[in-house]
Amino acid sequence: xxxxxxxxxxxxxxxxxxxxxxxxxxxxxxxxxxxxxxxxxxxxxxxxxxxxxxxxxxxxxxxxxxxxxxxxxxxxxxxxxxxxxxxxxxxxxxxxxxxxxxxxxxxxxxxxxxxxxxxxxxxxxxxxxxxxxxxxxxxxxxxxxxxxxxxxxxxxxxxxxxxxxxxxxxxxxxxxxxxxxxxxxxxxxxxxxxxxxxxxxxxxxxxxxxxxxxxxxxxxxxxxxxxxxxxxxxxxxxxxxxxxxxxxxxxxxxxxxxxxxxxxxxxxxxxxxxxxxxxxxxxxxxxxxxxxxxxxxxxxxxxxxxxxxxxxxxxxxxxxxxxxxxxxxxxxxxxxxxxxxxxxxxxxxxxxxxxxxxxxxxxxxxxxxx
Length: 370
Known about the structure:
It contains 14 helices and three strands.
């Protein structure tokens, strides 16, 4: 016992330790090290699962891994299981972080391997897919066109009416999801940001009184930077119809839910809305409308980034702040000019050129024409 009264236990020099216990202790220590760096629990759990997956696949402990086994493992993920490049890159990064932690001399794991097990810990260096350029992870993913978006919203509204008229259950949930889709687009939200919205997150914008109570949205669960809490931002309302949609939902739909915590889109039991159920409903609507592939919940955010710049003419810096990006280059990833926009821009530039040419005096044309 120490003078402070704290009891400290020491392992007996004669006590044996097995490889399984040491491996578990390594993983537990790594989990605590990540928590100490304030990583989110879901990130810690994913990394922990990546290491366990490789342990199960190889049948060996971390200090027994070989470079060839690691390359066979990643080759199987790509060639047999057809995992995406982003998934394989994430697992490679998880294993590299774990091995760097386990081999760090500040921790006792390498010494334990040598002293207690008689096996030196020589960490491998898994080859990693290099992220060479900024851009969408998959070229399949895309935004809605304006025509597709309008058709989707109309179908979602009609589906609410269909369920209510049929007398089936689920009309209220369909109404909630229809408004949630519109909110996700109208304020350029990610799935997690949408699901954690509360009614009190809306407030007035004194410079845009026509939106009433719904002029500004405070997003409190934005995408976090590494080892940091959720990033917060404010998003200004830009569409008149969006304020009307939210106001109607809060007045007519929301009171029908159990909602002690004030969520904007709660479940029937008053819990946080599950983004997976929202994705399933979206996929049903996309299939029913026979829309081309490449659309997911993030397509609403992609569409917002495109439309406010290319269709509505807002400045890129404004779009960057609305989306919560650190750099304009990130916003540019979302901005894919549509054929209609390019055609309008071409007409605008050519029209302005013709107007300037028509305004010039005949003597200044320099082409010899009368």
